[in-house]
Amino acid sequence: MPTHSRTHTIRSSAFADGDRIPDQYGYRNANVNPPLEFDGVPDGAASLALVVDDLDAVEPAGKIWDHWIVWNIPPEQQPIPEGWDPETAGARAGTNDFGERGYGGPSPSDREHTYRFRLFALETELGTDLDTEATAADLESAMDGHVLATATIEGTRGRIQPDRDPDPTRRSAPARRTRVRALPAAAVRARSPTERRESRARLRPRGGRARVRRRSDGVG
């Protein structure tokens, strides 16, 4: 849909337009929506609608991936807080492409993706033909002919973030530090010198000393 107004704007205190979306808003992290604020809602707007989607999902998923669909937001709703429940303001939320109602955060599977947050000012409230199973396509069809203004902000997120990996088992070991399980003292004393030398030889990799993974090696 085209942008109908240059003065209608949307922003977030969590990230600037075009910047990286912080971890806590990702699907595999806290999975709460970032805070949003908007200005310039045109006179005559009866409701607002919000669509958050991922155009870069077309290649891995075969479609634009919808993350959040909300409609009948009161124009005076300001701001949209972090972790917002639309129903507390009388708004409605549809079903995202995770098959869940409400917000589903970024979760790219292949590379860095760009996520659009689009806020629509509508001249009317949308009727009961939209229910909690409604998709972004359903919402955009219902909005057709009723859009007064559109505002957009974008944020990015990659598959593995350098400052926090959602899966702690995938983190590399600290530089120059290994964890060795100690044997009971009685077991060590029970071994003969020959047995201890043979045990150390089995633990040593071929070609010399063991190589310790450093942070710069990355994560496999």
Task: Please tag this protein with its features.
220 residues; alpha+beta; Phosphatidylethanolamine-binding Protein; 2 domains; 5-stranded antiparallel β-sheet; two-stranded antiparallel sheet; 4 helices; 13% helix; disordered N terminus; disordered C terminus
Tell me what the structure shows.
The structure is a single chain. With 220 residues, the chain is of the alpha+beta class. It has two domains: 9-157, Phosphatidylethanolamine-binding Protein; 168-205 and 212-217, no CATH class. It has helices at residues 58-61, 136-143, 185-190, 193-203, and strands at residues 9-11, 37-39, 47-54, 65-73, 92-93, 113-122, 147-157. This is UPF0098 family protein.
CATH class of the largest domain, please?
Alpha Beta
Report the major sheet.
Answer: 5 strands, antiparallel
Tell me the span between the first and last alpha carbons.
41 Å
Tell me the CATH topology of the largest domain: Phosphatidylethanolamine-binding Protein
The average pLDDT score comes to 80
Number of domains: 2
Structural class: alpha+beta
What fraction of residues sit in β-strands? Answer: 15-25%
Could you state the order of secondary-structure elements as H and E?
A: EEEHEEEHEHH
Cα radius of gyration in angstroms? 26 Å
Give the CATH superfamily of the largest domain.
PEBP-like
Count the E strands.
7
Spans of at least 5 consecutive residues with low confidence:
1-6, 161-178, 203-220
Biased composition (Basic and acidic residues): 156-170, 192-201
Region (Disordered): 1-28, 83-110, 151-220
Protein name: UPF0098 family protein
Organism: Natrialba magadii (strain ATCC 43099 / DSM 3394 / CCM 3739 / CIP 104546 / IAM 13178 / JCM 8861 / NBRC 102185 / NCIMB 2190 / MS3)
